[in-house]
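TA notes, week 10

Several of you asked for a full example with nothing omitted. So below is the full record: structure tokens for the whole chain, then the designed sequence directly under it. When grading your own attempts, check the secondary structure regions first.
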């Protein structure tokens, strides 16, 4: 399983939301085809066909748990996890 598939799997399982590295989230968003715009410590992600705009901020080296939940909802809603989001 590739590194990105492992990250998607961890996010979809939902039991490690506080332990996801922010650098992994950034790589995942790029892997999923999101466009990144940075304003200070705000990382803003948009994607054609996805109505929501994700505004993420790091919490030290980690992603904020509530923002990981937002990413999970987007992955599931738009079927971005491939065969892992079923």
């Amino acid at each position: 399983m590739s590194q990105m598939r492992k990250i998607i799997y961890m996010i979809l399982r939902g039991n490690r939301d506080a332990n996801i590295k922010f650098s992994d989230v950034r790589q995942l968003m790029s892997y999923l085809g999101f466009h990144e715009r940075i304003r200070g410590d705000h990382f803003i992600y948009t994607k054609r066909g996805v109505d929501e705009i994700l505004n993420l901020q790091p919490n030290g080296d980690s992603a904020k748990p509530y923002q990981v939940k937002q990413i999970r909802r987007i992955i599931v809603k738009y079927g971005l996890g491939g065969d892992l989001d079923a």
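Residues 45 and 54 are 5 Å apart (CA to CA). Use that as a sanity check on your answer.
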